[in-house]
Design goal:
mainly alpha, about 0% strand, flat
């Protein structure tokens, strides 16, 4: 809990990001992931598999740049 609070206080973020709670949610997800909650294992694996598969199936003419929105 203290580590999360320290991260929140020391992380640069624009005021609207803090005001709407986006930074807090991002930090909460990060620390929940780091605790290694087994309930997230399948979800994390599925997300990574989807991203890798999509990148591999992208047209070869596409620029080698991908944007992944989300976290972890």
């Amino acid at each position: 809990m203290l580590a999360e609070m320290f991260r929140y206080v020391t992380t640069f973020a624009l005021e609207p990001v803090r005001k709407h709670g986006h930074l807090k949610k991002l930090i909460d997800l990060e620390f929940r992931y780091k605790r290694g909650d087994p309930a997230w294992a399948d979800h994390t694996f599925n997300c990574r598999t989807f991203i890798v598969t999509a990148a591999e199936n992208a047209p070869s003419s596409a620029r080698p740049l991908f944007l992944v929105l989300g976290c972890l």
